[in-house]
Amino acid sequence: MSRIGESFQELRRKGELGVIVYLPVGYPSVEATLELVPAVLEGGAHMVELGIPFSDPLADGATIQRATQVALEQGVTVERCLEVVGRLRGRGVEAPIVLMTYYNPVLAYGEEDFLVHSKKVGADGLIVVDLPWEEGENIREKSLRLGLDFIPLVAPTTQDDRIARMGREGRGFIYCVSVTGVTGARDELPPDLPQLLQRVRAYSPLPIAVGFGISKRKHLEAVRPFAEGVVIGSALIQTMEGAKREEAIARARRYVEVVTGRRAEAPHDDLF
Amino acid sequence: MLPDARGRFGPYGGRYVPETLVAALKELEEAYLWARSDPSFQEELASLLRHYAGRPTPLYLARNMTDHLGGAKIYLKREDLAHTGAHKINNALGQGLLVKRMGKRRVVAETGAGQHGVATATVCAMLGLECVIYMGAEDVRRQAPNVFRMRLLGAEVRPVESGTRTLKDAINEAIRDWVTNVRNTHYLLGSAVGPHPYPMMVRDFQSTIGREAKEQLWDQEGRLPDYAVACVGGGSNAIGLFYPFLEDPVELVGVEAAGEGLYGGRHAASLVQGRPGVLHGALSYLLQDSHGQILPTHSIAPGLDYPGVGPEHAYLKDTGRARYVAVTDAEALEGFKLLAQKEGILPALEPAHAIYYASRLASTLPKEAIVLVCLSGRGDKDLEIVARALGDNIL
What we know:
The complex is a heterodimer of chains A (272) and B (395). With 272 residues, chain A is α/β, with parallel strands linked by helices. Chain A is 47% helix and 14% strand. Chain A contains 12 helices and 9 strands. Chain A starts with a helix and ends in a 13-residue tail after the last helix. Chain B has 395 residues and is an alpha/beta fold. Chain B has helices at 22-36, 39-51, 63-69, 88-102, 115-127, 137-142, 144-152, 167-181, 198-206, 208-221, 236-242, 270-273, 311-319, 329-343, 349-363, 383-390; strands at 8-9, 12-13, 59-61, 73-78, 106-111, 130-136, 156-160, 185-187, 227-231, 251-259, 275-279, 282-286, 322-328, 370-375. Chain B starts with 7 loop residues before the first strand and ends in a 5-residue tail after the last helix. The chains are: A alpha/beta (272), B alpha/beta (395).
């Protein structure tokens, strides 16, 4: 079983909701990413998704677009992202690491090389935002062969037969996009989210992690009965915006502690 | 017949989109395939093209230009005379009717030069659809008359401040809007780019250009042209001109924007200088760096200022069925002046690239040869850019 599968098994045993934190590599800097990952894991996250920056992130809202721009301005490439994974493993990070990317940087790097090198540096899984299941047969087969989890994305508009196919052929977990929309923190979860999650559950045996718009403690509580995990991205990045490196890391850690319930919520802090 | 069932032209094309859009693209594909074979849809479209858009557009022998150059006869397919002043209306009408049939009420579109935005706003006004146009902030600045036109037509124009603030970023924003509002919104994409079925559908709607030209030239000359020449940004007017000639012995030439020159990086010649990659839903030639990041582009013609190109052009390039060349900003201005002064026609800066190339080509050919050029739009929108570029030479 993959490290991601084991992690979800462990969570089930403990009765905990998995918290997956999305961090764009190179935001606010590459050195900061190397410290942010251990910090959010200590703060209560169970896995991390590392975002590979792409110049045209058309599934992302304003927050991740800005973070991506910062990363690109620092010259973050696929090579450097893989190097970051390797260095994190070298520093003793044992939690599952998922790479999240758009397809073109992978194509430019070379699909086969990308997968082989990802595995070698210690990545556990892969999400390709703009590669629908039908277009991903090759990369899926190669991932399977190498022991990398190729993680499917399901949206509210995804039809049942496709969920079933992703449930059969996908590995790790199903990333369930909570809304029709782009990434970004939102105040409220969509009211029909439980129905979507029940539908996914009915067609797929994989653990479910809910992403897009998850930013608050109450969101985690609302999702808990229907899913095994949540993905938090934009909200965490917002807590770091404008902060210097040390401060950004401290804020990120504190945010994860609060959102996971390890630390009491700060009164008057509308982020939570 | 291409594309295949997966939307592929050889290796190019496909459907590289976020999961949220997959169902909408399938729905659109089904609706379009049904409309394509539905006589009542085709009749309604044909009637609007004739009585609303002013088709067929004329095929004009540019005799003065031909005499001046002393070579092949130059025929201009006058898309500049279609309603709204460019070929974009052909596709906007087709997709607009499809939107009505699909029962959607809201349309989003991108625009570069503003021509597709104006065509979309026009069709939405006529069909009673809500219309939002995304336009790069840089293009809003340099194509102000078209922004005003769109607003007069009742569309909301949203300037896009992200990225390079041009056509590429307008498409990103239009796709983000579509992802968010996909249940009630249609994305009326203006070029033969994007995920399947757009490259096929836009080509089909634009093929009226080549079909008419072929028939008109047959009436006037009793034969096929030797060359068909069109400018290529995303490539919709070019594929519309080329498609009906694919099986004929006609040499097809697409003219890209070489901007300030191909070797300084300030250009938009994706087919001439790019390599295959995925952007905006399709695999095609792209201007990108070695890490797969999309490069900023430049062209004096906003409608050509785009780092990608339609996947069918990528296929035609690789198979050798069409040839792609590039023309600089300065050369396009030469083409603009030539047509203005010899024929009394102000072309848009986009087809001015094709005019320039065709003029060079024609001068090397014998007098019996025929060069057919798609004059895809009129130049009124570009007067400010041209005035600034030519300075006292024109004012």
